[in-house]
Amino acid sequence: MTQDGDLDNLVRQRIKGLRAALGWSLDDLAARCYLSPSTLSRIETGHRRMALDQLVPIARALGTTLDQLVESAGDDDVVIRPQRDEARGRTTWMLTREPGPHGISVARMHVTRPAPRRGPDVMRVHPGRDWFTVLSGTVKLLLGERTILVEAGQAAEFSTMIPHAFGAHDGPADILCIFDHDGQRTHLHPADG
Prior knowledge:
The chain has helices at about 5-20, 25-35, 35-45, 50-60, 65-70, 180-190; strands spanning about 85, 90-95, 105-110, 130-135, 140-145, 145-150, 155-160, 165-170, 175-180.
């Protein structure tokens, strides 16, 4: 079956399923969307092609939108898949698909690489603030001249205008991070070469 055929079948199933969930007969839906019951029956069974001028009133009558009625059956809009960055020893799950207010993004990270040695080539500075909480393991945070161990159940929040870097300490760590726009760009882009 073609992808278009799959989508047609999915839309037909959604129409029938929504109608049944509302407890409506074909006559009930027909009266609400100004189509004949026989036309709706042929649409639901695949014996009639669907047209945009039919789908819009059907969607409206069913209390949904045309977009929701015809959206893909894929799960990428629901399932968050990990992004692996082997060079940095991190696996990241972006928990926000679009930045929130003030460009804030939330990510979960599994960190396996130890904190780097202190130095200008690894310590980053950028405008804003970073925040993370350790879900498991321990994170070594290099913050200016300080070395701070943040353990499971603890959180850290700091100005990113202070040179900083972090990594796992004595084994992998899982963290939940909140970044502003600059923090996301600095910490979440893939490592260079």
